[in-house]
Design goal:
This protein is α+β, with helices and mostly antiparallel strands and 611 residues long. Helices cover 62% and strands 6% of the residues.
């Protein structure tokens, strides 16, 4: 560990300014390269931009608007709209500021364990894997609740680590404050923070043989001061039956389709293939470590150091990893698109268990456990709990990745730079060469990912969708139908009219500045249950909805694939009886050919007008 790592932000910016400037330039370069291509209108983002606007118009979260998260994000974003205007740029700026806070916090956390330039590598990796990637980003995330919760969670971890380094118990006031804030954003993610804190306090009990009563008092007072007023108000003003039946904020009454989606996300739906996929992540870790060792041996050879031992270790690790990977692909049919992070479910418990053993032995011997060992444990515990949602499916793609693995990235960079070389090589000069080679590999990976994401986004997203409420660039397949549908809605409905968009895509309502009539902004399988379809029909009638837009999007991950055919059949039947197809919006690539049908893979939008 670098024992000169700055504790407060002022010292951090003063002492590590060159590294921070380099990271800022790298972030700006990635931001410029992906400019305006952060919006993914089909991944819940309609809900994210539309719900705050509905709140401004007087609708109430949980009662008038279904929600699966805490109240912080929609009400905070509504406040931003109220101050700065209802425009996409408002939330994009909020997302960008959150990205900067997350990256600075990740850098600060990395500095608890590593030198300034190793921490720079870890933070740069988070930029390309999490903050700005072709499949997801922090600028316009799938969920602002997840984004804000990540900001609060990492802040809580930063103050927890500060406590471990300084021993100042008042840090727990800040830990509790950010724990409480994270609970108001996303309860399940806040639970990760809480369990990590409890684990640290238990380690403290094990080491010092005392109850951390003062720490617990500070934590409880500050956390409850945030949680109790906010959730108390919600429970006083919203019937409990509404919270538990129509919303999933407290994780009760979760539909089977959502549970099916979670089983796919976790990898359990593909067991035991997902187990072998995760185990092959160990092979990828061996490949990365072995390649670094081989390159390190070449560096050592040129400088006359003892390089043969390193050469042998590198060859064994690389060959073993390659063989292991090929066996997994050929015999167990695992995906070849794997990374070392997939092995986290096996690697992190080893690190955590090793820490517990070290603390126990030091206690018996009357010794203090080093703060860096505890810090590594905190990072490992938090990372392990974070990835449990994707336990056997830890990848670097998908909309959820940025919110599951940023701390895992830090832990694995430390594993690659420090732990693995220390396990195999005792010679300090040779180990340094291994670390230098590993740094070169990581830097190459980071640059390659940055270039690949930029090229992919700029090649695939070329159509600009514009409206009075903002603009973004997306693919032609989505952008062309969306732009035409927005124009159609504005021309065929008066201002203030309600337009229903099914089964999702309220991005269209937001851009066209038209109200949405249902509580459920997502009518994906399970979100609008069969027993609530009649209620939805009554809402459509009461809002005098003259235009309904049906978006062709398949949802196999939820078990039911096609709206109106596999789920919400009664609602679709009622629409067909009372509305007629008035227009259809297809990408130019599939026009004049009869057009695909609902359930086909092509994206299109159908407009139904009231009979």
């Amino acid at each position: 560990m670098n024992h000169q790592a700055p504790i407060n932000l002022r010292d951090l910016f003063r002492e590590d300014r060159k590294a921070l400037i380099a990271l800022a330039l790298f972030f700006i370069a990635n931001l410029a390269g992906t400019w305006q291509r952060w919006t993914q209108p089909l991944i819940s983002q309609g809900r994210e931009v539309s719900t705050p606007a509905r709140i401004i118009n007087g609708e109430k979260l949980y009662t008038d608007i279904q929600s699966v998260f805490g109240p912080f994000a929609p009400y905070f974003n509504a406040a931003l709209y109220k101050v700065f205007g209802i425009d996409l740029i408002v939330l994009k700026i909020s997302g960008a500021l959150c990205a900067i806070i997350i990256l600075v916090t990740i850098f600060w956390i990395s500095r608890r364990l590593m030198s300034v330039w190793k921490s720079t590598a870890a933070t740069a990796a988070v930029i390309v894997i999490c903050a700005l990637k072709s499949t997801a980003n922090y600028i316009q995330p799938y969920s602002f609740a997840a984004l804000y919760c990540l900001v609060f969670s990492l802040a809580a971890m930063a103050f927890l680590l500060a406590y471990l380094q300084t021993g100042k118990k008042r840090n727990f006031l800040w830990v509790g404050l950010f724990l409480g804030l994270s609970a108001t954003a996303k309860l399940d993610s806040a639970l990760v923070v809480l369990v990590t804190i409890i684990a640290v306090l238990l380690l403290d009990v094990m080491e010092h043989r005392r109850l951390p009563l003062q720490e617990f008092l500070y934590l409880s007072v500050s956390a409850l001061a945030i949680v109790c007023p906010i959730y108390g108000y919600i429970m006083l003003t919203t019937p409990l039956s509404v919270l538990l039946k129509n919303n999933y904020i407290f994780l009760f009454n979760i539909p089977s389709q959502v549970l099916h989606f979670n089983s796919i996300l976790s990898g359990l739906a593909k067991w035991p293939t997902s187990f072998w996929f995760s185990l092959s992540g160990v092979a990828m870790l061996m490949i990365w470590a072995g390649t670094g060792a081989l390159l390190g041996a070449l560096i050592s050879h040129r400088k006359g150091d003892q390089w043969r031992e390193l050469l042998g270790i590198g060859a064994i690790l690389l060959a073993g990893g390659l063989i292991w990977r090929e066996i997994s692909i050929l015999i167990f049919q695992t995906s070849p698109n794997n990374t070392p992070f997939a092995s986290a479910i096996f690697v992190l418990p080893v690190i955590i268990g090793r820490t517990i053993i070290i603390v126990w032995r030091n206690r018996k011997a009357g010794r203090q456990t080093s703060s860096d060992q505890k810090i590594l444990a905190v990072i490992s515990i938090f990372s392990f709990l974070s990835i449990l949602r994707a336990v056997f499916n830890v990848t670097i793609s998908g909309p959820f990745t940025p919110f599951l693995i940023p701390m895992l990235v830090v832990g694995y960079i430390y594993l690659l730079f420090e732990i693995i070389p220390a396990i195999f090589i005792k010679s300090q000069p040779v180990r340094i060469h291994w670390q230098q080679a590993s740094a070169l590999l990581v830097a190459s990976m980071i640059l390659a990912m940055a270039v690949n994401s930029t090229i992919k986004l700029r090649r695939e997203n070329t159509f600009q969708v514009s409206s009075s409420r903002g603009s973004f660039i997306t693919s032609n397949e989505i952008g062309e139908p969306l732009a035409e549908a927005v124009k159609y809605v504005r021309e065929h409905t008066p201002a203030g009219a309600s337009v229903l968009t099914l089964p999702l895509f309220t991005t269209l309502n937001f851009l066209a500045d038209r109200d949405y009539p249902l509580k459920e902004e997502l009518t994906l399988p399970g979100f609008l249950s069969d027993e609530k379809e009649m209620e939805a029909i009554e809402q459509i009638k009461s809002h005098n909805v003259n235009l309904i837009l049906i978006v062709n999007i398949t949802t196999p991950a939820f078990g039911n694939r096609v709206f109106g055919a596999d789920y919400n059949l009664e609602l679709m039947r009622w629409i067909a009886e009372n509305y007629h197809l008035a227009a259809r919006f297809d990408p130019k690539t599939i026009r004049n050919g009869g057009g695909p049908k609902l359930g086909d893979t092509q994206f299109f939008i159908m407009a139904y007008e009231k009979n």
